[in-house]
Amino acid sequence: MALNGKTILITGSTDGVGRWVARRLAADGTHVLLHGRSQERGQAALEAIRAEGGSAEFLPADLSSLAEVRRLAEAVLARHDRLDGLINNAGIGTGPDPSRRETSADGHELRFAVNYLAGFLLTRLLLPALRRGAPARIVNVASAGQQAIDFDDVMLTRGYSGVRAYCQSKLAQILSTFDLAEELKGSGVTATCLHPATYMDTTMVRQSGTHPISTVEEGGEAILALAASPELEGRSGVYFNGRRPSRPLAQAEDPRARERLRILSERLTGIGPA
Predict the structure, then answer these.
(1) Do the strands 189-195 and 7-10 form a parallel or antiparallel pair, or are they unpaired?
(2) Confidence of residue 42 (pLDDT cuts 50, 70, 90)
């Protein structure tokens, strides 16, 4: 879509692939809403975009707190009546010690909270602005690393593994994307998700001790395609592996599992249907 004059929020856009996508969108005329936890990194990202002639603003929030997610949404809506896009990119990896279970400010398993639940809530809160911006696009940055959700122990209180937690949170993003796409049919707002690239050269990957095997640019181009490519106008409820439509783990295509996750997410966040 034509990006000049559009407004798009990108979570986790002060570093890594999110920052790369933000700079590319801004260079094409998008007003970019940057998000991150660090005021210092946020200011640096903001100054870099402005130095290149782009338009942006920075909105800080710690997505491990649902209260801060709400404050982020309030800040966006106070400044912008409509949004043309939302890229839920922020996330955390398996952690420095994958055997140590961590919890969010609200007491939820940390990876489920940050990687999935924050984006679920933020999306629901911003849907009125996205509907007003229609045609608008929601892009959820998931992963090919997926594991089925155990609805009897979603918070992984038994046999915890950071890898399992990360993979479960990423599959939750995909289930929720498919579910949301169904709810938004006919609204002009689309929802897609993707695995951008494998082990990009990002802080998350390096901190996990994994050797990067792909570039931020490769993953960024895949995200940009879903966010702005004219060829994908109207495509919704699709999972992409890079630039190609693909099939996620089977649970993502189970309507009952999607419903269970939606009901759980609405209860945990205190927000109703889309």
Answers:
(1) unpaired
(2) very high
Catalytic (active site) residue 166:
yes
CA 45, CA 48: separation in Å to the nearest integer?
A: 5
Full domain range(s) for residue 253: 7-269
d(Cα 32, Cα 87) in Å, to the nearest integer? 11
| Residue 2 resides in a domain | no
pTM beyond 0.90: the answer is yes
Indicate whether 141 belongs to any domain: yes
Domain with residue 28: its CATH number is 3.40.50.720
**Does 10 have pLDDT greater than 80?**
yes
C-beta pairs of 208-211 under 8 Å, 24+ apart in sequence: 208/93, 208/94
Dihedral, CA atoms, 208, 161, 167, 83, nearest 10 degrees? -80
158 domain-assigned: yes
Pick the catalytic residue from 116, 160, 166, 199. 166
For 224-233, the pLDDT digits (tens) are: 999 999 999 9
Distance CA 126, CA 70 (A): 10
| 210 falls within a domain | yes
**How confident is residue 204, by pLDDT bands cut at 50, 70 and 90?**
low
What's the number of domains the chain is made of? 1
